[in-house]
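FW: tagging you since you asked about this chain on Friday. Here's the raw sequence from the shared folder, copied in full. Didn't touch anything.
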Amino acid sequence: MKQPNEICQNALPVAPWMDALAARLPGLQPVAEGDWLRVDDAYAAQMAYRDHLLETRRDEVVMRAAGPVEAEAALLDQVTAAALTLPGFARVECGIKRPDGVVVDPAREDSAIVAAARLAQEDFLILEQTDEGQRLTSAVLCFPASWSLSQKIGRNMLRIHEPVDRYDDNIAKRVNRVMDVLQQGNAVWRANVLCYNDPELHQPRLEHERRPFDPALPTWVRVERQSLKRLTASATVFAIHTYLVPLEKLSPEQLASLPDNVRRGGSMGETN
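HL: got it, structure written out here
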């Protein structure tokens, strides 16, 4: 039986455990031309929920540690340009019409990053180069997968990933090197996978809080397609597209190859 808070795709188009490159941390690979942002069959429901969270829980899902006005403006420009190449988007007199028919007027939003997040299905986190490395300076995160924006905002990459055992100095250096050499306009992507007993998309948790999971209960498979894209000379955006499907909706090949530790509540490719 479908739960009231269940917003799922009909199928899972990204299965990182079946990709030898994606299965290794950090698992970064180039984003194909025109494939940075995606629109799928959950777009309307996810965007309606995003708009609801922005209205009712704004202080939790929108945060800023600094004033990266230039980077946010660059994000909105790039999101707008990318969206208008996708089916269902159109420029209209009062803004941009989304595939679900909602019109977003960026001029009426209180920040460029919120305007960008109201157009795209992805969550957006802006990282700025500082003396301490890449630092999370502003974000719209409506669909956190067991982490809290309030705990991460203002941190550099290594401190963001403190709870992740596999995110060691070696992985950190490799990720920072990729971000340092990423050319403006280019993007790379990776993915992770987690299983949940609750299909709720908005699942913030603090670092000491464990994600509850019982493999005997109904299970949803959650995959994040995460991308890094250069915005300005000093800023990069981390974009997260969330896929969620009931375990039984996996293809036979996906289900047969899903790692046992993931089925039992472990993770693969997790860097949060």
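FW: DSSP finds nine helices and eleven strands in the chain.
HL: agreed, and The two ends are 30 Å apart (CA to CA).
FW: great, closing this out.
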